Amino acid sequence: MTEPLAKRAHARIIGMIFSGELVAGDALQEAKLGEALNMSRTPVREAIKRIEAEGLAERDGRFLRVRQLSAEEVEEIFFLRETLEAHGARMATRLPKSTLEAMKTRIHALMQAGPGEGEEHWRVDNDFHRMLADAAGNETLIRTIDDLRLRTCIFDHTRVPQRFLKGCEEHLAIIAALESGDAEQAGELIAAHIRNARDAILEWLTVFNEGKAP
Length: 214
Fold this sequence. Notes:
Helix content: over 70%
Oligomer: single chain
CATH topology of the largest domain: Four Helix Bundle (Hemerythrin (Met), subunit A)
Largest sheet: 2 strands, antiparallel
Radius of gyration: 18 Å
Shape: globular
Number of strands: 2
Strand order of the largest sheet: 1-2
Number of domains: 2
Order of helices and strands: HHHEEHHHHHH
Structural class: mainly alpha
């Protein structure tokens, strides 16, 4: 029973980081999070340990806090993502048309709803990138991409709002390339999409480090 609860607690806490409920520097306190999630301390404790292992939190004295990535780490993460996800996108021309249509429908609905739908944005974005990774049929690649994406989930549209609509439009362009069977274009478009996300995050970090970011 503990394992599914811990998994659910992990997903909920990651969602809180993504939505901005928890920001860099916030303490991950078992009692407080347990109350917020209506869970006992045990699954919350296990979820927090996993978050630390994933590199999303770090020790600060007695506390474990949501950590802020450095510009160097962002560069490294997105370099790997660009390489791996471009490979997945080139393989994704084999995806069924129905799968691509369903994803397009979700992206259009998200664009209509606007950036206020934080958790839904996270789910759609995550499912889009997982869809491309799954097409490669390589479990190690899939797990690696999941881990890399998780490490930058704190940089959502509340921190880089200019990426919300642009990111959705880029997703749709990638789907269009896949629908036309153009594997190389799909690879190039996902690589550009990832570089654009990287650049927006690096710009935010520069402003943050100058003490001007919210």
